[in-house]
Design a protein that fits this description.
single chain; mainly alpha; 0% strand; globular; membrane; WaaL-like
């Protein structure tokens, strides 16, 4: 424990502030506590504003265009579609989508003041530890017969729904998983033991959420990462070994999944997609508006055979954006997903070994969450949107900075 006081004395004030605020920002977003998030965003925003005034500059937010271009296109299409529709409620929601992107710029600002790589990792680790221990506590209560916890034995904690809790887990776990490849941390035995414990705790918690979509998104994402890694290293043996291991772990987790792999409402999702397609056919260009999906669905598009009569979203992110913002916003969302998937993939081949694990981790998080979004709320959940923006800014700005430094060294 002597490390922290010594580090605090040796580190400059600006760097200390960046580390502390980054940790609080990461922890608040990962834990999804509204009051905590509001307080941290307020403190971080006030600090950044004061720093900008002091320096008489906003260059602390500057980054290469490739870092923010996909996000800018997506948010612009959603806002433009809502403005063209002229619905005040939809415009307000579209502006909220823009507001949720603040962590992207905040993490870039802090990264210019300090190397916060391990601080972000610490925030994620602390959150998974707290969530995992609380999951174990609730699981113990369920085992004792306490029925008011969870939905049909599925644990949700304070995330509002088991699927939402699972989304946060599959967004956070990749950082802990790939941190085992960090050159500095590999030599610390205590870190390895703690990291493996947190990964196991997180996967166990994922099982207790009973979220098939999150599990499927993570499993497919891991398969894609294995494929990319073996393609980069031109190793067929590693690919086959990874595929077998992935299949075995997936099979084991499937058998242990709370609630099983088949649910009574599975057919309802197909009816929901049919309704969403019909809605989009009638409002192709601008959609019905971000604020009007539930009303339109209930009045006109709900299928007669549907048993779930009070749904508020189509449980498919692509369907959501096409039905609410039309071709304009729907195309913007697809561009956003493809742009960052390709960009992260490309950078895994150009990044230095010491930080490549961050790109792999964020790519896995991005793929897993967006795949889960094909059967749930996905990126439209404000907490998940904030977390993914934070991770994208963290990985992409760091990569761009490292590449720029290498180019300067080569010129010299």
């Amino acid at each position: 424990m002597k490390f922290l006081p010594e580090w605090w004395k040796k580190t400059e004030k600006t760097e200390r502030n960046a580390h502390v605020l980054t940790f609080l920002l990461t922890l608040s977003i990962c834990s999804y506590q509204s009051a905590f998030i509001s307080i941290v965003l307020g403190i971080a925003g006030a600090y950044i504003l004061a720093d900008c005034i002091k320096k008489k500059s906003i260059r602390g937010f500057a980054s290469d265009r490739e870092c923010w271009f996909g996000m800018a296109v997506f948010l612009a299409t959603v806002v433009i579609s809502s403005l063209m529709l002229g619905d005040k409620g939809s415009i307000r929601i579209a502006l909220n989508y823009v507001y949720w992107s603040l962590p992207f710029f905040m993490i870039i600002y802090f990264m210019k003041q300090a190397d916060v790589k391990y601080t972000v990792l610490l925030g994620v680790g602390v959150c998974i530890l707290m969530d995992g221990l609380y999951t174990a506590y609730q699981y113990g209560l369920l085992a004792q017969g306490v029925k008011h916890i969870g939905r049909f034995g599925r644990i949700e904690l304070f995330y509002g729904h088991p699927n939402h809790y699972a989304m946060f887990l599959i967004a956070m776990l990749p950082l802990l998983l790939f941190a085992l490849q960090d050159h500095t941390l590999q030599g610390i035995k205590r870190f390895k033991a703690a990291d493996i414990f947190l990964i196991a705790l997180g996967l166990w918690s994922l099982l207790k959420t009973g979220s098939r979509g999150a599990f499927g998104g993570l499993a497919i994402g891991i398969f894609v990462i294995i494929l990319i890694y073996c393609y980069r290293n031109k190793s067929v043996k590693k690919f086959l070994a990874g595929l077998v291991l992935c299949a075995c772990v997936s099979g084991l987790m499937s058998t242990l999944m709370v609630g099983g792999m088949q649910r009574r409402y599975d057919s309802e999702r197909l009816l929901l997609l049919q309704s969403s397609y019909a809605m989009w056919q009638d409002h192709k260009l601008l959609g019905v508006g971000l604020n009007n999906w539930e009303e339109q669905y209930q009045k006109k598009y709900i299928m007669k055979t549907a048993k779930e009569r009070k749904l508020t979203v189509p449980h498919n992110t692509v369907a959501w954006f096409f039905t609410t913002t039309g071709v304009i916003g729907g195309a913007g969302y697809l561009f956003f997903v493809l742009y960052y998937s390709v960009l992260l993939f490309r950078k895994t081949g150009s990044e230095a070994d010491r930080d490549r694990w961050i790109l792999y981790a964020v790519l896995l998080s991005f793929i897993a969450v967006n795949l889960h979004g094909m059967v749930d709320v996905g990126f439209t959940h404000k907490g998940i949107a904030r977390l993914l923006y934070l991770l994208l800014g963290f990985a992409l700005y760091r990569s761009c900075t490292n590449n720029a430094l290498r180019k300067q060294r080569n010129i010299v």
